[in-house]
């Protein structure tokens, strides 16, 4: 039986994307693969039991039949960390992970183990990624995201923590790379990681649909009042702009996929945007801030232009931060997104090299 531990250098680096694509490759390669999320931080209820949402996602996408407590043995709901530190959690959590893993190991040829965040996440309850990988004897693959210096720095830092606990770092994957703008970056990353003895197992190109939220996600994230839903809440936004300048200058800085965040009392800017959108489709939608509800006339213009618009109470800076920090999670129903993930990973990851280090 072989296994791999998929870790990351931080939040939103693309670990779940890599897990989905890599698991699909293992299955298509003819392997009987199992999946495990030993420690989960985002808990949902599935089949009447608590489980990490990534374990639920993998189970639904691939039709896995292993019990949820085996695929997701430990999860950290709100208040759990304080209870653990205060000595109120007396169960041997490590034993729960080992038992679940042993059951998967008996059932499958290979087990893909997905960690949570960077190498040290989970240390507060004695189950950091590095500790779990060491406990299970699994080699680690580290996922980072685009750039040159930052991904190499982050990967090397995380690799050192894994190595300190005797975990073999099998290699790295760099996600969200603009290969069109930087065609020579793959070789640079490969050389940079080679200097530290870390193989580059693949580079995944940047695709907006995998990284940016839809208008519906924005609506749910900012908890606003829908003034008009627009034609398609599933539309993926390309960028975010702050409408704090004169309308004529603002229009120079936005495109058809731009979400514009603008105070609700800036009727001049809102009307200019709606007029331009009606004639040329210049923006994806509006988030109107400060709790300033536009006049009925302005709202009518928004609706006539069929432009997405939501009204929120927070100020512009707070809302911009919320939108920026939105966690764009993949859901089992995201058929287009999942298909793209599978295709990208199949094209850009070296499965033979990955299987060679799985042990």
Number of domains: 2
Architecture of the largest domain in CATH?
3-Layer(aba) Sandwich
DSSP, total strands: 15
In CATH terms, the superfamily of the largest domain is P-loop containing nucleotide triphosphate hydrolases
CATH C-level class of the largest domain is: Alpha Beta
Number of helices: 16
Helicity range: 40-55%
> Largest sheet at a glance?
6 strands, parallel
The share of residues in extended strands comes to 15-25%
Which fold name is given in CATH as the topology of the largest domain?
Rossmann fold
Give the overall shape, derived from the CA principal axes. Answer: globular
| Sheet/helix structural class | alpha/beta
Strand order of the largest sheet: 2-7-1-8-9-10
Low-confidence runs of at least 5 consecutive residues: none
Structure description:
The chain has helices at residues 15-28, 53-62, 68-71, 80-85, 93-107, 129-136, 149-164, 185-194, 208-211, 215-222, 247-251, 267-280, 296-304, 316-324, 335-348, 351-357, and strands at 2-8, 33-36, 39-40, 43-46, 49-52, 74-75, 110-114, 140-145, 169-177, 200-205, 225-228, 239-242, 258-263, 285-289, 308-311. The chain is an alpha/beta fold and 359 residues long. The termini are close together. The mean pLDDT is 89.
Index terms:
2 domains; single chain; 43% helix; 359 residues; six-stranded parallel β-sheet; globular; five-stranded mixed β-sheet; Udp-n-acetylmuramoylalanyl-d-glutamate--2,6- Diaminopimelate Ligase, Chain: A, domain 1
